[in-house]
Design brief:
The complex is a heterodimer of chains A (115) and B (109). With 115 residues, chain A is mainly beta. Chain A is built from no helices and eleven strands. In chain A, the strands form two sheets. In chain A, strands 2, 4, 5, 6, 9, 10 and 11 form a seven-stranded mixed β-sheet that branches. In chain B, a hairpin with a 4-residue loop joins strand 7 and strand 8. The chains are: A mainly beta (115), B mainly beta (109). The interface between A and B is medium-sized, with 20 and 23 residues.
């Protein structure tokens, strides 16, 4: 299994508070992704990174920011959490550059509840 | 727009064969992935197709028709542990995966 961990695994917070989720990998993969998964929806990309300090927005980036200061860590911050951000958050990694086979490996997920 | 269509839920019997269909419309196409996701767990990779035809991998096979925007996942000799959701994910022209909502497969004894 790819070495990907996420912390925390579960979090309950209140509306308006900032929240940071961490993804840590030991595979030295270049690409890292943050998704959210909600019932009735497919995985939706929030942000992704293609290298240290190189990030880009996904389809549902509003209200989220990311940072990647080291290859192994990718942080997702909810600047002011809202109830609509209650979800399961998955981090994923992939090794290959776009244009080639690009299997993604997923972390165990973080279940976030915003009250 | 981009759209993925899969059945929401399917039921099959242990030992039988089941086919899970996926139709897609994407901006460009660079292959299609199938992932398995057990309840409360992370998705795990099953297969990747980029050319038309059938790819076989043990009890699981995946088929692609690019001209029809269609793929299916075929599971043979079903086991109880195959109860899971199956996610279809084509890759668009920007090499981003576009995820379907998944098909929940229920296996009955």
């Amino acid at each position: 299994d790819a070495g990907i961990t996420q912390s925390p695994r579960h979090k309950v917070t209140e509306t308006g508070t900032p929240v940071t989720l961490r993804c840590h990998q030991t595979e030295n993969h270049r690409y890292m992704y943050w998704y959210r998964q909600d019932p009735g929806h497919g995985l939706r990309l929030i942000h992704y990174s293609y290298g240290v300090k190189d990030t880009d927005k996904g389809e549902v980036s509003d209200g989220y920011s990311v940072s990647r200061s080291k290859t192994e860590d990718f942080l997702l911050t909810l600047e002011s959490a809202t109830s609509s951000q209650t979800s399961v958050y998955f981090c994923a990694i992939s090794e290959s550059d776009p244009g080639s086979y690009n299997e993604q490996f997923f972390g165990p997920g973080t279940r976030l509840t915003v009250l | 727009g981009q759209n993925i269509d899969q059945p929401t839920e399917m039921t099959a019997t242990e030992g039988a064969i089941v086919q899970i269909n996926c139709t897609y419309q994407t901006s460009g196409f660079n292959g299609l992935f199938w992932y398995q996701q057990h309840a409360g767990e992370a998705p795990t990779f099953l297969s990747y197709n980029v050319l038309d035809g059938l790819e076989e991998k043990g009890r699981f096979s995946s088929f692609l028709s690019r001209s029809k925007g269609y793929s299916y996942l075929l599971l043979k000799e079903l086991q109880m542990k195959d109860s899971a959701s199956y996610l279809c994910a084509p890759m668009d022209s920007n090499y981003q995966l576009i995820w379907g909502a998944g098909t929940k497969l229920i296996i009955k004894p």
